[in-house]
Amino acid sequence: MQMKVIIEGEVQRVGYRNFVAKKAIILGIKGRVKNLKDGRVEIICDGKEATLKKFLKEINVKEPPLIVEKITSAPQVPKKKFKTFEIIAGQLKDELIEGFGAASEYLRTTRNELKSTHGELKSFRNESNQNLKFLGSEMSGLKSEIKSFRTETKENFNALNSKYDKISSIMETFINEMRAYVKGTQVLNEKLTEVIALLSKSYSRKKRRS
Fold it and tell me: Residue 52: which of 1, 114, 107, 127 has the closest Cα?
């Protein structure tokens, strides 16, 4: 199947014909590509229908400096049998101008990409600095919270120690009072025992007299 393709956009003096030729050779397509005087590019391609569809998809590129805006394609009756895929060159002056133009466009694109990359790196550095400052602020806040927690914990332990000392003092007083109570009870029991013994003796004397 042979097809005629017209490409419109930024496709001259940017190396587009070389790009098309490489894609065609990789896919095994035969034909030719040339610049038109009106700024468009014309391609005659010969190959299987599925392969030609893939070819059209791959040459529809929008990667500066190559910018394809429109592709018009139509099958045609083969007018010539191609053995390879070739680039139809124009006059030497035009080819030199295109070569310099393509090189200039690639240099401009590369410069813009480097400039963009520099801007992205600068933005990344600024974001990194901001993140580091934020992290430093967060760490400072965390240190403050840890210090506050430590102070509160120390105060709580001090309060607990104070309460424990007070409880201990109360318990000690209670124990001392219980000891005194027990001792007093023992003395009382001894006195009662003596009184009971005296009463028992007195009762025994009276009974003998009777």
Answer: 1
pLDDT in tens, 47-82: 999 999 999 999 999 998 999 999 999 999 998 899
Which residue in 32, 35, 111, 131 is the catalytic one? Answer: 35
Q: Is residue 27 a contact partner of residue 61, using CB atoms and an 8 Å limit? A: no
Sequence letter at residue 5? V
What is this structure's pTM?
0.50
60 included as an active-site residue: no
Whether 108 is catalytic: no
2-89: CATH architecture: 2-Layer Sandwich (3.30)
Which of 90, 85, 59 shows the shortest CA–CA distance to 72? 59
Of 13, 17, 18, 112, the catalytic one is 17
Averaged pLDDT for residues 136-156: 76
- Nearest C-alpha neighbor of 10 from the set 57, 93, 94, 70: 70
